[in-house]
């Protein structure tokens, strides 16, 4: 195997795939990146057996072949080289690297030892704007937490209908739903749960991408593919297992009405919660007092060791007067994911969930359970 590649192209490819590679003591081959030639493309592959990522780079191939190389080491080495063209040549299980005044030989492993990354070759597929999918996923991906008892809520629920994509995530204390309107032909509806790690990898891959995203549906796997811009060929492909089980009927926890509604400045509300959080106790509680008569929200917190803090914010408030405590971390997370200057904050008493919605945007909602008074 022998090929010549630009430093920046190889660096981008390695950055796309090496994040999923950890230190695997049971299967050390998984600590490697598989480097192969494929016609006029260099093909980089990595897997942790749950997620597989492949990245293709159009480059000058002089001789076909393949080898597995320790991924973290290779990435660090390439990052240290000058931003010039790099010449790679494989001989047996050694990879010679030459770049300007640098020459190195890296020990590798047979590509036959590297696991095969499955592909979804048949079945339904959809195509949509990658920026749209990225925007929706970014608003919910951080919410799930690992649960051995309920693995289905450890992931991100995605459902496809003829005109809508819904993305949902929860940790049982809060829930976020993002709706994306799309126009594509799909013969049947799909719903599935992807691992949170898959969601994070997609966000990294899609963060600077524009154009189309292709999604292929399999019985127990899903495949996301980003095509090259000027060539009819995939650039990056991610294959992931799906989480088994049925996602909870989350619609049951979304309130259909409210007792109190407040329209507030998002930035001012967010800042006051952050200030109050400095005085919060061990359970991260801040108290919200809503008064429709004075059209103010009072935010307070107290800690026996630190003291107490109170602040107020004016807004359009209607409904009942009430006092509810929330985990400030959950409120901050919800507000940070709103893409509007104003927030619609709906309260339903000490036992009912609160809801955060962006004013002027019905595509996103964030439900958060209150902290019940002891």
Automatic annotation (TrEMBL):
Q: What processes does the entry annotate via GO biological process terms?
A: DNA strand elongation involved in DNA replication
Query: Which keywords accompany this UniProt record?
Result: Cytoplasm, DNA replication, DNA-binding, DNA-directed DNA polymerase, Nucleotidyltransferase, Transferase
Q: Where is the DNA polymerase III beta sliding clamp C-terminal domain?
A: 252-372
GO cellular component terms listed in the entry, alphabetical order: cytoplasm; DNA polymerase III complex
Q: Which Pfam families match?
A: DNA_pol3_beta (PF00712), DNA_pol3_beta_2 (PF02767), DNA_pol3_beta_3 (PF02768)
Q: Where is it mainly found?
A: cytoplasm
Q: In which domain of life is the source organism classified?
A: Bacteria
Xref: CDD domains: beta_clamp (cd00140)
Residues annotated as domain DNA polymerase III beta sliding clamp N-terminal: 1-118
Instruction: Tell me which residues make up the DNA polymerase III beta sliding clamp central domain.
Output: 131-249
Q: Which SMART domains match?
A: POL3Bc
Q: Name one GO molecular function term.
A: DNA binding
Entry's localization field: Cytoplasm
Q: Which family does it belong to?
A: Belongs to the beta sliding clamp family.
Q: How does it assemble?
A: Forms a ring-shaped head-to-tail homodimer around DNA.
The entry's function note states: Confers DNA tethering and processivity to DNA polymerases and other proteins. Acts as a clamp, forming a ring around DNA (a reaction catalyzed by the clamp-loading complex) which diffuses in an ATP-independent manner freely and bidirectionally along dsDNA. Initially characterized for its ability to contact the catalytic subunit of DNA polymerase III (Pol III), a complex, multichain enzyme responsible for most of the replicative synthesis in bacteria; Pol III exhibits 3'-5' exonuclease proofreading activity.
Instruction: Provide the protein name.
Output: Beta sliding clamp
């Amino acid at each position: 195997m022998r090929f010549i590649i630009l430093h920046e192209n190889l660096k981008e490819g390695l950055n796309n795939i090496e994040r999923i590679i950890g230190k695997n003591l049971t299967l050390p081959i998984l600590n490697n990146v598989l480097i192969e030639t494929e016609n006029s493309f260099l093909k980089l592959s990595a897997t942790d057996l749950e997620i597989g990522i492949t990245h293709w780079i159009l480059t000058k191939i002089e001789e076909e072949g393949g080898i597995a190389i320790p991924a973290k080491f290779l990435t660090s080495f390439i990052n240290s080289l000058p931003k010039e063209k790099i010449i790679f040549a494989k001989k047996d299980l050694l990879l010679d690297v030459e770049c300007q005044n640098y020459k190195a030989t890296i020990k590798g492993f047979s590509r036959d030892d590297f696991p095969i990354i499955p592909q979804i070759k048949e079945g339904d597929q959809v195509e949509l704007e990658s920026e749209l999918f990225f925007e929706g996923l970014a608003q919910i991906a951080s919410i799930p937490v690992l649960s051995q008892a309920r693995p289905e809520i450890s992931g991100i629920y995605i459902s496809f209908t003829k005109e809508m994509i819904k993305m949902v995530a929860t940790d049982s204390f809060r829930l976020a739903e993002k709706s994306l309107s799309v126009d594509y032909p799909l013969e049947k509806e799909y719903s599935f749960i992807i691992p949170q790690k898959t969601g994070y990898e997609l966000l990294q891959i899609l963060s600077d991408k524009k154009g189309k995203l292709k999604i292929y549906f399999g019985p127990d796997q899903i495949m996301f593919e980003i095509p090259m811009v000027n060539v009819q060929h995939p650039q990056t492909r991610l294959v992931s297992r799906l989480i088994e089980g049925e996602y909870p009927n989350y619609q049951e926890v979304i309130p259909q009405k409210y007792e109190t509604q407040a329209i507030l400045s998002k930035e001012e509300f967010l800042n006051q919660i952050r200030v109050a959080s400095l005085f919060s106790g061990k359970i991260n509680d801040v108290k919200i007092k809503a008064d429709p008569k004075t059209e103010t929200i009072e935010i307070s917190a107290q800690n026996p060791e630190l003291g107490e803090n109170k602040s107020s914010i004016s807004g359009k408030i209607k409904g009942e007067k009430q006092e509810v405590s929330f985990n400030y971390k959950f409120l901050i997370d919800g507000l940070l994911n709103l893409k509007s200057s104003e927030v619609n904050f709906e309260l339903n008493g000490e036992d009912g969930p609160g809801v955060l919605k962006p004013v002027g945007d019905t595509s996103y909602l964030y439900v958060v359970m209150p902290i019940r008074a002891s």
